TrEMBL record:
Designated name of the protein: Putative ABC transporter ATP-binding protein YxlF
Origin: domain of life: Bacteria
Keyword Nucleotide-binding in record: yes
Assigned keywords, A-Z: ATP-binding, Hydrolase, Nucleotide-binding, Transport
Hydrolase found in the keyword field: yes
Family designation: Belongs to the ABC transporter superfamily.
InterPro entries: AAA+_ATPase, ABC_Gallidermin_ATP-bd, ABC_transporter-like_ATP-bd, ABC_transporter-like_CS, P-loop_NTPase
Every ABC transporter domain range: 5-228
Originating organism: Acetatifactor muris
Amino acid sequence: MDMILKTTNLCKNFKGQTAVNNVSLNIQRNSVYGLLGPNGAGKSTILKMLTGILRPTSGEIEFDGHAWNRSDLQSIGALIEMPPLYENLTAYENLKVRTLALGLPDTRIEEVLRIVDLTGTRKKKSGHFSLGMKQRLGIALALLSSPKLLILDEPTNGLDPIGIQELRELICSFPAHGITVILSSHILSEVEQIAEHIGIISAGKLGYESKINKGTSLEEIFMRVVAANNERGEK
């Protein structure tokens, strides 16, 4: 199997507390991978290590066939927490700021606006956007550098049903364009509709990783993993 990203025994400790405990992920190229887990399970900490925001305490990250290094961030787009927007600027202007920083041509702005369906926003300031539009603009910012891997942390949080549907369709379109997506969420039904493969994290440990098979009860597996990890933690 062609893996774009692998982690081996990835660990992160904060002041003696273990937030991520020996996590080994296998992310297949040109797929959507759902990283599931309850709030506080360690999902965001893992994603922050993959994007260089946090340094692992131990373990290895392999990206595109080699040991991860900071230059790989040119090939990794990410939306972690709220999109980093200048609310007094339009969608185009927000993207223009980033293209100047990255040394990219203006033609790329129009391309990503088209991908996330924000070409009609014109002079509207991003501070007046709906939450769904802000999320899509955040994804547009992450797509500017034409990444091979896109990392999205709880992207549907707070969205209304229409916003969720629009974002779901957008995410599902990426693998056909050569973009692998890692999507973290605690909402099982969302991941079930988007992801091809899933990993379930609980109490900092990876309790399950597999392709999603029809007829499999994701809720049952999720509850089993969480209960098993809670039992281990209590012993």
